[in-house]
Amino acid sequence: MPSQLMQTEVRLAQPGKFDLVANSLSDPPEGEARIRIRRIGICGTDIHAFHGRQPFFEYPRILGHELAAEIVALNGPSELITGDLVTVEPYLNDPNSPASQTGKTNCCESLQVLGVHIDGGMRSEINVPISKLHRAASASVDQLALVEMLCIGCHAVNRSQSNKVDNALILGAGPIGLSALSFLQTRTKNIAVADLDEGRLQFCREAFDVEHTIKVTPGESLERSLREAFGGRLPDVIFDATGNRDSMLSSFEMAAHGGRIVFIGLFQGRVEFDDPNFHKRELTLMASRNAVSAEFKEVIQAMESGQINTDPWITHRLHLDEVPERFGDVISSPKLRKAVIHLDT
How much is the pTM? Predict the structure, then answer.
């Protein structure tokens, strides 16, 4: 007879309200593993859901897709073993979909993301497909909780095909912008970061050694500052990680002729641009969504080799049991960079 585990889980019952409940978890079906959650990263998706402004979202929902975990049981052949520390690729795709068959598993037509479209990992244990687990050789559980977030930036940089001769601009120095910065710095040294918040820009200078930071003033053009940063030129590639409509639309006026624009963030609305300007510059516009399996391995390797430094990231911590009471205060902290939820003592 299949066994059932009673466990603690945290559900977002409605905007602004979490419930802490006990529920059962059955043994993993064939092809899946049971994992014990060790850390959960809090990301922008979780925050938007908490505030009631996350698209394609239904309540109640168990949040959590930035997961560091330990394998408890495996039901199927695998090179993994019980006790392995892993991070979870939370994008559950249909392998027979046209996108998946061309390697675009990250934007499968029927994609379900843990913690967004289906219940995620804000609980003691969860069953997930074995194929979505990525083992660490030496990365810590804290680092593994950062992998999915860093994969978002890694994928965007890979999409851009940036190289050492590119001048690159990152708009938005929040976690996703910084994740792109981490990998962009392995491609080119000619980088500027722009943001409304001087504190974030200072962090870029101190933690990432970014030479050119630009304080954004709403309604004012960045062209002069960009040309000063890039020796009279405009950026060859722009990454917009703001999810802000005005910022995203302004990128069409800031890109060099022949340049590329990568939208990492998104907003609920229409993107509009001046077509003569778009054609005159022969711009390339790209969306960037999620990441693919190879990028999870790429990020873990970059962490473990020291190619990227994760030490400055985590600023806030809380235990799973504290989520209903403390979540709102933690995500409202002006000093928040990255918060993680602990499930161990």
Answer: 0.95
